[in-house]
UniProtKB/TrEMBL annotation:
UniProt-listed SMART domains: DEXDc, HELICc
Physiological role: ATP-dependent RNA helicase which is a subunit of the eIF4F complex involved in cap recognition and is required for mRNA binding to ribosome. In the current model of translation initiation, eIF4A unwinds RNA secondary structures in the 5'-UTR of mRNAs which is necessary to allow efficient binding of the small ribosomal subunit, and subsequent scanning for the initiator codon.
Domain of life assignment: Eukaryota
Entry's Gene Ontology cellular component terms: cytosol
Organism for this UniProt entry: Leptomonas pyrrhocoris
Biased composition (Basic and acidic residues): 502-533
Location of the DEAD-box RNA helicase Q domain: 3-31
Region Disordered: start-end pairs: 480-592
Name this polypeptide is given: Probable eukaryotic initiation factor 4A
PANTHER family in UniProt: ATP-DEPENDENT RNA HELICASE (PTHR47959:SF24), ATP-DEPENDENT RNA HELICASE RHLE-RELATED (PTHR47959)
Domain Helicase C-terminal: 301-451
Length: 592
């Protein structure tokens, strides 16, 4: 079994570790990405949730780390703390023979502890961008020096890390890290592959206060040569939403179809079509996933949720997704008062409480997990049989990541969306973008006869839960809202100041342009005036006398010449005759 990993270039000791962890056959995304990473390429990998993307970058990183074990060798950025913990666990398991040193740079942990850990030069660092950015800004040189030997930069859930507020932290972090070297590889992995992750065309910057206005995600990450990038998309019932090329060649014969395995430099036509829309995506949905909806009034969601959970039985794990932290705690407390083994996961909880709840759910102590979208990405909980959308997500990619918690690694899974009168347009948008159709959920738990007996009991529990939520989390919610408002105001002021500065710079440039133009016109006018003055002071130049042309007489023609000759002859004859007469007269006169 380990030979299949060795055929990809994985060394025997690492392939043996895979077999110890029950990884006997590489998944399609692993078969495509591992050889490319080992070959020193930048890689973008897109595959369905639960397809082994973490091992696709962890295995080649550990193999090259074995030859050079100094300093922070790999930095893995994630959008959530729980995912960072999970990634570190996998690096520790795969890298046990190396005794790999790891470190977490996430919120909820004392900064002094994290600084000490960075000073120890760990091999692998998993971090959320905000916390690591804070450490680099606050403790500058001593933290920055730890990343001087950085060989790999990994963005797990890259689509989330390159959008919204978190993108600002990522860009700021990249500017604080040492400059990228030619040997540094960038690896991007996600289940929803946006074209901004595969195209070098610039897109609108998330931060309106930035001077750039538009940025290229790949260029910001240090990928400037298209010939060094390879994009792999494993299609397992993939639904395409604009922007990916037709199937290409695969590196190995696989059941799943691979697209775009060529270098970006060989797919210029594809880039031309994808760069037109930075939001186009490829959505990856498992074939074993069954998707349903239940249309119910908004006011009776809780009774329907209780009925659905009762119908699930005690052996199956269920994740319930909501859209706010406060609602997560309200639903969790209501279910807890009704006797369900339930825990929650949201940002109102302390970090230790969040870790304990995740462990409780993974171990089966708590059969139900009520959470926000903080648990929608990356968490590997293999035995989740049902995902319930208590609140319909606002974006299709969030929906894809939510349902990705079930139907993992070829197992069957179910997803049910509670659709109220306010959610119809959201569901239609999700169906359109994922190119799927949600079927109506026809479970006995969805019938009114199962709901009516629960109304009073659920309403009473909900009232008690509201009181407890206010007591436990009310102050923190108000504090968070205040901090969020302050942050929004500060960001608005920063954007206003940046816009004012940009306007001022434009005004200065315009004024400078007008000043230069006026000065040039003034200089030209002075030169013309000086020329006119000189012209008036100097005498007018004498006009040169033109030499008359003497035309030579034309040669007479033959007829004229003959006439002239005759006339001359006659004149000569007359002169001779006159001369002779005078002589005769002179001779006679003396005789008289």
């Amino acid at each position: 079994m380990a030979q299949q990993f060795q055929q990809l270039g994985v060394q025997p000791w690492l392939a043996k570790q895979c077999s110890y962890m029950a990884l006997h056959t590489p998944t399609p995304i692993q078969q495509r990405c591992i050889p490319a990473v080992l070959a020193g390429r930048h890689v973008v990998g897109g595959a369905a949730t639960g397809s082994g993307k973490t091992a696709a970058f962890a295995l080649p990183i550990l193999q090259t780390l074995a030859a050079d074990t100094y300093g922070v060798y790999a930095l893995v950025l994630t959008p959530s703390r729980e995912l960072a913990y999970q990634i570190i666990d996998q690096f520790i398991a795969f890298g046990a023979p190396l005794q790999v040193r790891t470190m977490l740079a996430i919120g909820g942990v004392a900064t002094e502890t994290q600084i000490d850990a960075l000073k120890a030069r760990p091999h692998i660092v998993a971090a959320t961008p905000g916390r690591l950015c804070h450490l680099l800004r606050t403790f500058g040189p001593e933290v920055k020096g730890a990343f001087g030997h950085l060989r790999y930069l990994v963005l797990d859930e890259a689509d989330r890390l390159t959008e919204g507020d978190i993108q600002r932290d990522v860009w700021a972090l990249l500017r604080l890290l040492p400059p990228a070297t030619k040997s540094r590889q960038v690896l991007l992995f996600t289940a929803t592959l946006h074209t901004r992750l595969t195209s070098f065309a610039p897109v609108a910057a998330a931060d309106a206060s930035t001077a750039e206005g538009e940025v290229s995600v790949l260029a910001e990450l240090g990928i400037t040569d298209p010939t060094t990038l390879e994009v792999f998309v494993v299609r397992e019932a993939i639904q395409e939403q604009g922007g990916m090329t037709t199937p290409g060649t695969a590196r190995a014969p696989l059941d799943a179809e691979a697209t775009n395995t060529h270098e970006v430099g060989n797919r210029e036509a594809a880039n031309a079509s994808t760069s037109s829309s930075a939001s186009a995506s490829v959505f990856h949905l498992p074939e074993t996933l069954q998707q349903h909806y239940l249309f119910i009034p908004n006011m009776v969601k809780l009774p329907y949720l209780v009925a659905a959970l009762q119908a699930q039985g005690k052996s199956q794990s269920t994740i319930v997704y909501v859209n706010s932290c406060l609602r997560a705690e309200l639903v969790r407390l209501t279910l807890q008062l009704l006797g369900f083994p339930v825990c929650s996961l949201d940002s109102l909880l302390t970090q230790q409480h969040r870790l304990d709840n995740v462990a409780s759910f993974k171990l089966g102590i708590s059969r139900i997990l009520v959470c926000t979208d903080i648990a929608a990405r990356g968490l590997d909980i293999p035995m989740v049989g049902l995902v319930l959308h208590y609140d319909v997500p606002k974006h299709a990619d969030t929906y894809v990541h939510r349902v990705g918690r079930t139907a993992r690694a070829g197992r069957e899974g179910h997803s049910v969306a509670f659709v109220s009168e306010y959610d119809v347009s959201l569901v239609q948008r999700i169906e359109k973008k994922t190119k799927t159709t949600l079927g109506r959920w026809r479970s006995p738990a969805a019938k009114e006869t199962a709901i009516l007996p629960l109304l009073d009991e659920v309403s009473s529990a909900k009232v008690q839960a509201k009181q407890q939520v206010e007591e436990q989390f009310g102050a923190r919610v108000r504090t968070n809202k205040t901090h969020a408002a302050v942050k929004r105001d500060a960001r608005a002021r920063a954007q206003t100041a940046a816009m004012a500065q940009a306007h001022e710079r434009r005004e200065r440039r315009e004024q400078e342009r007008h000043r230069r133009g006026a000065k040039q016109r003034e200089t030209h006018e002075e030169e013309r005036e000086e020329g006119r003055s000189k012209a008036a002071a100097s005498p007018p130049p004498e006009k040169p006398v033109a030499a008359k042309r003497v035309r030579s007489p034309a040669a007479p023609s033959a007829s004229k010449k003959s006439k002239t000759t005759a006339t001359d002859a006659e004149a000569s004859s007359s002169k001779l005759a006159g001369s002779a007469t005078r002589k005769k007269v002179g001779k006679i006169a003396p005789g008289r």
